[in-house]
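User: Study the chain.
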Amino acid sequence: WRWHRQGARYQSVDDTSIGVVDPVLVTSPDKQYVAIRMKGPLDTLWPEGPSYQIRGDSWTVVLETATGRPVAEHISSYRAQLQLTNQAVLDGGIAYSLRDGSQLWATEPADATGYTGTAGEHTFILAGKNSQDLTASIIPDDDPRSPTPIGQLARDPNTYQLVVEAGWAVRYSEKVTIEKGVVSSQAAAAVPVDDLAAADSPRAVPLGEIGGINALASRSSGTLALNPAYPDGSNPTVDASLPQVGQVFDPSSGQVLTPDDGSLATATIGRTDTDVVVTYRDGRKLTIPLPQAATAIPESPRQLGDWTLQQRRAISLLSTPDITVAILGEGEGTLLLGYR
């Protein structure tokens, strides 16, 4: 299927730039729904009646991924948080049903900012956007009245992004600190967002000691890509020879993968005179014809999660079991989309 809105100008849903492009889609944990934002009319009151004031600079549409059918659309705000569970979308402080698009509840402010991205299967996350604060609160998607405080959620130590994949997040067992792109190593576990309020979730998967989570590698591979525990004084943003990703948690299988298991999260990116070469740790290679102007990719291979690749905005990869989409930085920000 194909969905198109005549004259639409699509907006990024996250103002932290990693990779070539900023994300424009938010998916539900089960991947059955996807939300997009586009530029909308200004200075619109929504909903009618209550005194909620939203700067109506955006319009949010939620599509059913199996059919492309719009299931919800409403006025929004560019900076408002946007999250999806499997049943509802939270846009700012207003929740809407994914079954019929009706409003479920509203809180103030209606254009509330905060974490944007996939939420839990039945739970929204109230957390600061790109913050060093590892605490948050969670609320059921059908009742916002009793938020539950939680702590020690893993964030990317460079971008401070909270990373959630398919309804799973990473939680440290003890208090940690983030300083100059390095997290103090600590034992952690992968936990469903719905279970974060429980001290001991029966579904939690121990991960051992980690040194943080890599947002770029996680987003590219659809996994929770974990920084290994670094020796004291080591900084992977300065020393590119250090491994950027160690273990990888795959939410689709519930398994913890080693770096040699062939996940895209642990792959390296390099180029020849004619091709971009993605090399997996299990020996597989993905070769993409190199556009003449795509010079942002370094010749010497770099790990996908390498901070210098993020700074250069050289390449973005998105992977499914059947296809990998590569978006290459080209010249002055022109983009090339390649499928292999």
